[in-house]
Amino acid sequence: MSDLLERLRGRGWRMTSQRRVVAQVLDGDHVHLTADEVHARAALLLPEISRATVYNTLGELVSLGEVIEVATDGRARRYDPNAHRPHHHLVCSTCGTVRDVHPARDPLADLPAQERFGFTVAAAEITYRGLCPSCAHDGPAGG
């Protein structure tokens, strides 16, 4: 059973066949699928699943805090099931590939008190942008 499915069962989330398929599709490391990609993969497992059901299920998972919605500069939002381990993201500026990266230190420790402007800072979301190996190799800068 996937980590996401285990977490949802532990919360007592009603596990319909549609919800189970969406959770299965989201399972894994470095998973950052768009809603349309989730729907396409879910439909391979459960052909009758509707796009609306996928969107509603993703919305519920985000509301529960079990999935993170990742926005990457005007591209379609992506859904990350790695919601319970602090991490940041690497995003390819060309193809949009997203990878999780795990900080060696607490990023809040790097924000000096004078730069907080009185805010009580609870979390940090850091996105590193650049070119993935494929785009760096194929693009003008790499080739």
What structural keywords apply?
single chain, 143 residues, alpha+beta, three-stranded mixed β-sheet
Give an overview in words:
This protein has 143 residues and is α+β, with helices and mostly antiparallel strands. Helix content is 34%, strand content 15%. The protein has five helices and six strands. The protein has helices spanning 3-10, 17-26, 35-45, 51-64, 133-138, and strands at residues 33-34, 68-70, 78-80, 88-92, 98-101, 127-130. The chain has a three-stranded antiparallel beta sheet. A hairpin with a 7-residue loop joins strand 2 (68-70) and strand 3 (78-80). Helix 2 (17-26) crosses helix 3 (35-45) and helix 3 (35-45) crosses helix 4 (51-64). The mean pLDDT is 85.
Short description, anyone?
With 143 residues, this protein is of the alpha+beta class.
